């Protein structure tokens, strides 16, 4: 009878190559997009470039560490990780919470800030993967598998929406439900979870007619109806994409980044990419993301155990859903949200988390089961 033996591989080279290419491309585009904003804010055109490069180096270190650590260790500390992430979200509503742009999404201690909402994503991935991998049949049980994770979605969503940060709440819930689906969630339960989630979002928006969520929804329906107020950012984004045409205006030649499009190096950096590199540049970037997610799915399918499969699935879902949401917002295909473009948008917390997550994918890819 054939024997199954675990052996170590060198890791997924394509995954490493695509990740590093996206990070380097992100540094270049952050510098280009932030040039005039940086001068306006600090007088130094290189401030965002320097910060983003530092975060990229730290992210590379995090990726190397997580690529070296056996991914099964995360299962042993899944509960504490989940609890810590929830505690950090709760601390936002204490004096430690830092308010920026009418939202409290950062914890600040001694000049250092972290975003608990970003940390909640990998925490949810690790806990959900561990919870479902203990027993492959638990996902079939409504009371033992579906309801506990649905309640977890509610806890995360509730704490994140209060910041307020609806986009991150939606992302975390999609990640959890996506892992449940990968584990074999019944289609009826899946439809029910999606229905309840959609109903909750609609109720939240409708019952708060004066909230910024309602304003974003109405501006999405017709951004040109109020181009100087609620629809301003989306209108400037569409102008940037339209100006880029097929091949773009050329790297560094964006017009909208000249203090027209607010914070162009952040959530709307895809608009600057479209303006400077054109439709072709956008297609190449999207193709890179597709390859990255495909490698993640490939790793999930070939993982040595169920925990590795679900962990790799969750990371792939996290990257894929953020790419879809970000591009959808920039192209006015959905209401504006605060979702960053993975590896490309400026933001230290998000960049480090994405690179560390890729490191976990690499470690999973190094473990396989050989048949002799």
Strand portion:
5-15%
Number of helices: 13
Contiguous low-pLDDT stretches (5 residues minimum) are none
Q: What is the tally of beta strands?
A: 5
Strand/helix succession? EHHHHEEEHHHHHHHHHE
Average pLDDT rating = 86
Largest sheet: 3 strands, antiparallel
Please tell me what the overall shape is.
globular
Roughly how many Å is the radius of gyration?
Answer: 21 Å
Q: Strand order, biggest sheet?
A: 2-3-4
Tally of structural domains: 1
Q: Approximately how much helix is present in the residues?
A: 55-70%
State the secondary-structure class. Answer: mainly alpha
Separation of termini? 9 Å
Describe this structure in words.
With 372 residues, this protein is mainly alpha-helical. The protein has one domain. The chain contains 13 helices and 5 strands. It has helices at 13-42, 47-68, 72-76, 78-91, 116-133, 142-161, 166-182, 187-206, 212-221, 232-244, 269-301, 306-330, 348-366, and strands at 4-8, 97-100, 103-109, 112-114, 367-371. Strands 2-3-4 form a 3-stranded antiparallel sheet. It is globular. The model has no long low-confidence stretch (mean pLDDT 86). Belongs to the SEDS family. FtsW subfamily. Keywords: Cell cycle, Cell division, Cell membrane, Cell shape, Cell wall biogenesis/degradation, Glycosyltransferase, Membrane, Peptidoglycan synthesis, Transferase, Transmembrane, Transmembrane helix. This is Probable peptidoglycan glycosyltransferase FtsW. It is found in: Cell membrane. Its main location: membrane.
